[in-house]
Every structure is written in C-alpha cells, then in structure tokens.
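Q: Predict the bound structure with 2P0.
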Amino acid sequence: MDSYSLGYANIALVKYWGKKSKDPVLPFNPNISLRLDNLLSKTKIEPSLTDEDEFYINDEKQSQEEVEKITKFIAKFTPVEREKICIKSYNTVPTAAGLSSSSSGTMALVLACNEYFKLNKTAEELVEISKEGSGSSCRSFYRLAAWLEDGSVEELSCDLDFGMMVLVVNEDRKKISSRIAMERCVQTSTTFDAWVEKAKEDFVAMKIALENADFEKIGAITEENALAMHATTTTSTPSFTFLTDESYRAMEIVKTLRKKGYRCYFTMDAGPNVKVLYLKEDQEKIYEEISKLWQKKIILCME
Ligand code: 2P0
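A: Predicted complex:
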C-alpha cells in the first residue's frame, strides 16, 4: 500500500481565535477560510516494525511527546485493540510556523486512519473527527469553509479566483502553540469580548462580500479581522505577540502596493509570516512588484 492521503492547509479570512467549549471543540465566533491547494500534507500509515507506535514528519522521527499526542487523538476514532503503527507524514508546509501545518496534517491523518483501519466514515464524520485534532482542520475539507459556533461546517461559494502568497519572515517552529496562545487570550485578554463581537460582525459582512464577489470588501475585512485577532495577544497577561518588525515591514509592502493600485491584502496567523490575498489574474504582476521589495522567501500557495 503506497498511497498517501492528502490534507490541505487553509487560511482564515475571518479567524477562529478562542474556544467556547473544548469537548466538543466549539469556536467562540463563526469563522471563514480559504483552502491553499499548494500547501499540503501527505500521510500514510504502515504496521510498525517495532513494538511502539512511531511518527515521522519529513522522515524525521518525532519525539515521544508528539507520538503520545497523536495516538491520544486517533484513539478517539480507531479500534481500541489495534496493532502498533508507523505514521509517515510529509509536509510541503513548514511545520508549526503559523502556516497552518496543523490543519493539513490533521486532515491527512484522519483520512489515512480511515483508509488504514477501513473505518468507512462519511465525509461529514471525517470533518467532525478532524476538528478534535485541530479545530481549524475541519475547514480544510472545502475550498471556502465556514465553521459555525454550533460546530457545524458549511461550504461557501464565491465566483472569484483567489490567489495567496506567503512572505516568509521565519519558518521556525513557533515559540508558543496556537492552542496555548488562544487559551491565554480567552482567559486574560482585556479586549477578548470586543474581539468576539467584531469577529461575529466580520463573519456576516464577509459572507455578503463573498456572495457579491466584492474583492475590495473581502480584502478589507480580512486585514481588519487579522489585526483585531492579533490585538488580543498584546492585551493578554503576560502579553505576547506573534508579529516581528519584519512582519510589519511585509504589511507595509502590501499597503504600498495597494496605494499604487494593486489589489492585495494581508493576513497573519499564529506566527510572524504574512500572507497576501489577491486575485489569481493579478498574481504575476503582484509577485513581480513584491519581489522587488521583499528579498526573502515567498511561497505561492495556489496553482
Ligand atoms: C485560524 N488559527 O482561524 C486561527 C487564526 C491560528 C490563528 O485556527 O487548538 O490548530 O487545535 O483548535 O486550529 C490555529 O489553531 O487550534 C488556528 P486548536 P488550531 O486559522
């Protein structure tokens, strides 16, 4: 059996930032994402050749702690009595650098388990299972997805052909996991309630903008929403931030291009990297302009 299961990364246009409930995982605010078809994880499961479960990412053996995390998750939906397995996963997404590797990795793992253990789960069941591994991964099953406060996931549609690139500030693993960061913001941020209210409004406005294929509006909400999410980190105790001086420089580049008439908008997640949203038809000229100002790595996220 040499077939891999594929999982895709997704980037939120309206962020999920805070759990209203951990079991089941429910978001405080409804959120919307765009799938990135070039950033993916592929995973396969084989019988373990040792008497332990094993987990490799990009051929690198993962720590016991990582293995335990993953086996605890898959125990929720795989047979109680099972042989030891070896999970082999490859990411084209830098791992845990705020580039949504957890969503692609979780989706690929859930599909690989479904295959290996012949679970025959429906698509809806796989989406449900996935969010117990990483909340945002439930959105990776659709090109445009809305994850609602009641836990349901809906597919949205929009006539626009989106493109996204990442201005890479840093590909290292983040210092604080999004799970811990999110929890700190829920518990201590003095602006958390305001964030939830704003995100709910952004969600409604984003749905309308997508329906109307109003790219300027989609972009404006995307930027504002990302900034509001990041503001909750600095109003937490102890306060922290995912963003660096280089992240702000990347944001400035996007704003500069916009002033010149290019249609592009930024968003950032649980890491310093800056993602740029644009329309596919503009990709070439935006890439050319950005490359003049950003000499570091740029990743194109969609074919
Ligand atoms: C998002 N992020 O909407 C937000 C924005 C990061 C910043 O969803 O704790 O791995 O497993 O549910 O889904 C990343 O968090 O967190 C995330 P858990 P997850 O994309």
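A: The longest strand covers residues 31-47.
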